[in-house]
Amino acid sequence: MGTLFKNGTIVTASDMVKADVLVEGEKIVLIGQDIPTQGHEVVPCDGKYLMPGGIDVHTHLDLAFGGTYSNDDFDTGHKAAAFGGTTMHIDFAMQPKGGKLHDALDIWREKAKPAQIDYSFHIGVTDLRDEVLEEIPTLIDEGVTSLKLFMAYKNVFQIDDKTLYLAMSQAAKHGMMVMVHAENGDVEEQLRKQLLAAGKTDPVDHYSSRPPEIEGEATNRAAVLSGLTNCRLYVVHVTCEPAVEAIRRARELGYPVMGETCVQYFYVTRDKHLGAPGFEGAKYVCSPPVRNEEHHAVLWQAVKDGTLQAVSTDHCDFWYEGGVGPVQEWAKAHNGGDWTAYEAQDPSYRRPGKELGKGDFSKIPNGMPGIEDRMMVMWHLGVNSGKISPSRFVELNSTNPAKIFGCYPQKGTIAVGTDADILVWDPNASHTISASTHHMKTDYNVYEGMTVKGVPQQVYLRGKRLVNGNLWLGKNGEGKFVHRKPNAPIL
Q1: Model pTM?
Q2: What pLDDT, in 10s, does the model give residues 146-174?
Q3: Which of 142, 167, 180, 376 is least enclosed, having the fewest CB within 10 Å?
Q4: DSSP structure string for 148-209
Q5: Domains detected in the chain
């Protein structure tokens, strides 16, 4: 007995066709017209789209950052992702200072034990010693083919140009991908110091410490090194015209450069959101910062013309009002400052959050929630407005991520032999986004009050239904690690 999706319209990156889809076990086994229903569980899909599950290639679950940890982990984050139509993500496993790259894998494998959707890892390189450089190709056997290096976050994650060049040279030899957070961290450090010295401490001043120019400069620098080393380069969370132009220029020169933007950069603005009264703007502090509408238009053009190939979230959520107070004093007195032990005892306790940066924007933990909202918001803003087609939506949110990161056609499309990661998408259903109803572990939502048209009604992972309307059917431990291949195409 299989599962038969009956009378839906299949949407892939290249086609839209009305057909039936038969799933047996974890795979799609047949696509055709008028497949007999006998012996199968039938899922009526009249008026619905059948799309491949979303793939979010940029997430930070349970990440130590800014004096706290991101809230969502491989339990709550996976459930939220599935409710939004995402069935796979790739998280960043960060190399511990002084440690090896495989240490990061070990740590994140442990974090991933409660997995409820499929996942993979990028390795964040923070300490490229000679022995670590030699370790890079050994990651391929582990199914990890991508490295991330930070050109920002001085004295935390930032690497220098020599390190970037060496990593790219080594990765290129083995068909691996290098990803960069592209902002000039040295200049950012100086701007930040100047702003704070001048008494500019509000959330909106975060923007002035990271203007578009330093994102564009760093993007161009990384792109030039990509051309020099012939290393596949993927620029994460592109926000602005200078960065887009640097990528476009590099691609015109034949450099193996690609890039993504994130859903929030099509909607959130410096003036309305980051510049909100009081401390409200802290909700929207991320790096690079959100820009205004003129940059939104540039990003829409870039995803339409292929300069940018994917849309992700950079999901890294924190409480707006966290738990700073007496518990912190308790932690210092009883547990060496480790408040996570108290959190384990009292699940209602809120770990420190955005309030850490009151009076100093540089101490606001950087990041926003979005893993649940990406697909619905992109459909609403992009497809419903006519900016992109349903097929381009699938390409940006599923197919291209799978191709770029070496797991296509297992993931990212609807075809015979692929994993049965299927969304039954209702283009006519509406949903109002709110922190009061979302499944992410945070007390605010970037898109609060937005009514979107087009939602996933049912979500299947490898043939198993995880979401049925508002009902959760997933289980911890059912998500699988996806082993990815090197030498992925340049799109």
Answers
A1: 0.95
A2: 999 999 999 889 999 999 999 999 999 99
A3: 142
A4: EEES-STTTTB--HHHHHHHHHHHHHTT-EEEEE---HHHHHHHHHHHHHTT--STTHHHHH
A5: 54-375 (3.20.20.140)
